[in-house]
Structure formats: structure tokens, C-alpha cells
Write a structure and sequence with these properties.
The protein is an alpha/beta fold. The chain is built from ten helices and ten strands.
């Protein structure tokens, strides 16, 4: 049977990918951030997942204001890097796992989660940067990838409670898949940051660290955080943290933290990374 063996919460700051792509990840500015990724990469190398489910948000690459799915699940065989205005990142094409993806799509919909099914979907930095964080710069990604795109751009986004419930549904559905697979779930985005307006550049380290402190043991409490509180405490893009709750839900009732890394600043944001394992 397939089983979820771990969860990763990580920021997906586009400048992190650019630092790798441009060969500057070892300079004075970026090296403290990337030094913290070394242990995470050792963990995933030892974990050896077959498939990763990456919960992320699109940044007007696959979708626009003309079409805004709340939850979109990629079921294709491949997912090419998107052109975000300066050419696609020179990273490998993500290889999908259509069988598991369709199993998820069918069972999520029959369990009353209204999923949009994407047979073609370019993937932007929201998905490729987390892969780079965990796998560096390989010739091919060493895992198959199932993208799960969440709308946190256009109001109204889903609540943290709904994302946590989605993750819990994913856990049971993965466990019912008959192929023997090791699966890791990524929740991406965040942490506190705002990219526009009078509060552009806001970083709330106290909020971020409190979120990390509660993620393993109090996901239901975190799921009560509302949209207004995210905006007030973590900036307009802080709402991306609801996607970390989807990851946490996929780990079951009990989870333990095995690694944490938090760094300020990464570009104009706070960058967090946490690794959880089901207990």
C-alpha cells in the first residue's frame, strides 16, 4: 500500500530559485539560508520518497483572474516549468504520477471536495522552488510529482480548516492506493510577508515562530486562524500558510517535528522550513 512518510513545510520565495539558478547561493547574503537546507536534503535523501504531493499556489502562470479554481489537481504525465515573464526556469520537467493523481481526484470528489482536474498545467516557482530547496540542481527530479494548486491569490481563499480537512482526506486516500509507494507531502508558501501597499516588507517573526511551534501538536488550533488575522499578523501573503495545514492534515492525528530552519530575510520575506513525520 502507499503510505505518507513525511511532510515538508517550506517557503517558495522566487529569489531562492534565482539565487541557485544564477550561482550566487554561496554569497554572504544567501549562504546562511542555504546552509540551513543541508540537513533537510540529507533527510529526504535518506527518506527516498517515490512521489511528492506539492500543495502550492499559482502566480498567474497556469491560471488568471479569468479562471480561479479553489483547488486544482494536476493529473498529467509531465509538468513543464512556466514562463513567469523572464523565461522558464532551467530546471527539470516534473514527471507526474497519473495513476495516484487520478485516484486522489476521484476519491476527493466522491468525498465532497470539489477539485478542478488539470490535464495540462505549467508549474511556476511555487512548485519548482520547493523542489530546488530539497533536491538542489539535479539533471532530473528524483521523484514523481503531483501538483495540488490552491487559490490564495484572489478573495475568497479556502480557510485553514478546509485545507486541514483536505490533507486528512488525502491521507486516507493515499493509504487506499494499492501500489507500494513512499509519499511525502509538501505545504508551501509563507511565512509572513507582504509584497505591496503601505505594509510591503512586513515580517512578523513572533507570529511565524508561534505557527511553527504549534504545527505538529495543535493543527486544529491553527486551523481556527481566520483570513483577517493572517493579513493583520503576517501580511497579505501570510495566508499562504493555510497550505502548510493541508500538509499537516496528511500526516494523521499525531506528528513530530524532526527539523526546523527559519531565516530572515530572504528577499523581502521570512523563509521557513519544517520537516514533520507521522507518529
Amino acid at each position: 500500500m502507499a503510505r505518507i512518510v513525511g511532510g515538508i513545510g517550506t517557503s517558495h520565495v522566487p529569489a531562492i530559485g534565482a539565487a541557485l539558478d544564477n550561482g550566487i547561493s554561496g554569497n554572504d547574503y544567501w549562504s546562511p539560508l542555504f546552509a540551513g537546507y543541508a540537513r533537510a536534503r540529507r533527510w529526504i535523501d535518506a527518506c527516498k520518497p517515490d512521489v511528492v504531493i506539492i500543495v502550492y499556489n499559482d502566480h498567474a502562470s497556469a491560471f488568471s483572474l479569468e479562471l480561479i479554481p479553489t483547488f486544482a489537481l494536476g493529473v498529467a504525465e509531465t509538468f513543464a516549468p512556466a514562463d513567469e515573464g523572464f523565461g522558464p526556469r532551467q530546471v527539470p520537467v516534473a514527471q507526474g504520477h497519473p495513476e495516484l493523481a487520478w485516484h486522489l481526484a476521484e476519491n476527493l470528489i466522491l468525498n465532497e471536495f470539489d477539485m478542478t482536474i488539470a490535464n495540462v498545467m505549467p508549474v511556476d516557482h511555487g512548485l519548482t522552488v520547493p523542489l530546488s530547496i530539497m533536491f538542489d540542481q539535479p539533471a532530473a527530479w528524483p521523484v514523481q510529482v503531483i501538483p495540488l494548486c490552491v487559490n490564495v491569490i484572489q478573495y475568497p481563499p479556502p480557510t485553514g480548516k478546509r485545507c486541514l480537512a483536505l490533507g486528512r482526506a488525502i491521507a486516507s486516500i493515499v493509504a487506499s492506493f494499492e501500489q507500494d509507494l513512499r509519499v511525502v507531502v509538501f505545504g508551501t508558501g509563507g511565512m509572513s510577508h507582504q509584497l505591496q501597499g503601505e505594509r510591503a516588507g512586513v515580517i512578523n517573526q513572533a507570529f511565524d515562530k508561534a505557527f511553527l511551534d504549534r504545527l505538529a501538536d495543535d493543527p486544529d488550533g491553527l486551523a481556527e486562524i481566520g483570513h483577517v488575522e493572517y493579513i493583520r499578523e503576517a501580511g497579505s501573503e501570510g495566508v499562504e500558510l493555510v497550505m502548510w495545514l493541508a500538509m499537516r492534515g496528511a500526516l494523521g492525528e499525531r506528528a513530530k517535528e524532526v527539523y526546523r530552519h527559519y531565516h530572515v530575510p530572504a528577499s523581502n520575506t521570512a523563509a521557513g522550513l519544517v520537516i514533520l513525520e507521522p507518529v
